[in-house]
């Protein structure tokens, strides 16, 4: 016997609906119920897995955010310390320069040049 396909066309407000029925596929309400229940269980399992993955992603994002915040604070603290060290070193250099400059000015005013004294060595 040839495989037959019955096709019904129904027109509803200019919409064409085609229904194909294969002769060897018989729809029994029990099989549809079983198929629907299986589909519902699979859907529930997928949604539960999706919730678990979302929870893991949220936890990972929170962890990364905390890590970034800790690193940001550590970098800012180290940078502030380095700025304080730089300012301290600059102030010490400026103070030393002021002392050396003051000493040279005083030696120049009294007529003694420490550079020439060092070059000539001790007098004989």
What would the keywords be for this entry?
mainly alpha; 124 residues; single chain; 2 helices; disordered N terminus
* Elements, N to C (H/E): EEHH
Tally of structural domains? 1
Q: Unreliable segments (pLDDT under 50, ≥5 consecutive)?
A: 1-19
Q: Which band does the percent of strand residues land in?
A: 5-15%
Instruction: Provide the helix percentage.
Output: over 70%
Structural class by secondary-structure content: mainly alpha
Give the C-alpha Rg: 46 Å
- Averaging pLDDT over every residue, what do you get? 79
Count of DSSP E strands?
Answer: 2
The end-to-end distance, rounded to whole angstroms, is 139 Å
Q: How are the strands of the biggest sheet laid out side by side?
A: 1-2
Instruction: Give the number of helices.
Output: 2
Give the overall form.
rod-shaped
Query: Main sheet?
Result: 2 strands, antiparallel
């Amino acid at each position: 016997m040839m495989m037959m396909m019955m096709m019904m066309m129904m027109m509803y407000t200019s919409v064409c609906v085609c229904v194909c029925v294969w002769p060897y596929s018989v729809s029994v309400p029990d099989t549809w119920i079983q198929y629907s229940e299986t589909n519902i269980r699979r859907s529930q399992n997928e949604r539960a897995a999706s919730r678990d993955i979302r929870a893991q992603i949220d936890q990972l994002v929170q962890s990364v955010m905390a890590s970034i915040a800790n690193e940001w604070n550590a970098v800012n603290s180290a940078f502030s310390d380095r700025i304080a060290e730089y300012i301290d070193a600059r102030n010490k250099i400026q103070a030393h320069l002021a002392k050396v400059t003051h000493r040279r000015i005083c030696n120049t005013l009294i007529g003694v040049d420490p550079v020439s004294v060092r070059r000539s060595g001790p007098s004989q």
